[in-house]
Amino acid sequence: MRFNTIGVSDGISMGTDGMSYSLQSRDLIADSIETVMAAQWYDGLVTLPGCDKNMPGCIIAMGRLDRPAIMVYGGTIRAGCGTIGGVEEN
């Protein structure tokens, strides 16, 4: 069974009032995972986080649950490339 949780993108919320919710989202992610796992009586957990707040949120949830769990890290987002003023930037 698959379920999702919330995620706040720092890239989108940077410089806005939404940034004040970024760190809080880590605990909300952990709470939502723990809630679904406990309410549905799942036997184990595999998480696939994709952001710097999602990873600790998943690990916090794993620590709270008394079930087998693993986190599969999807990797770092590749840095973008572009040309600014005729100079290539990496």
Helical region count? 3
Shape: elongated
For the sheet with most strands, the description reads: 2 strands, parallel
Measured as a percent range, the helix fraction is 25-40%
SS-derived structural category:
alpha+beta
Number of strands: 4
Identify low-pLDDT runs: none
Proportion in β-strands: 5-15%
**Mean pLDDT score, rounded?**
84
What string, H for helix and E for strand, traces the elements in order? HHEHEEE
How many domains, in number, for the residues? 1
Spatial strand order of the main sheet: 1-2
- Radius of gyration of CA atoms, rounded to a whole number: 17 Å
First-last Cα distance = 40 Å
Blueprint of the fold:
Blueprint: H1 10-13, H2 22-40, E1 45-47, H3 54-64, E2 69-71, E3 82-84, E4 87-89
Parallel strand pairs: 1-2
Antiparallel strand pairs: 3-4
Helix pairs in contact: 2-3
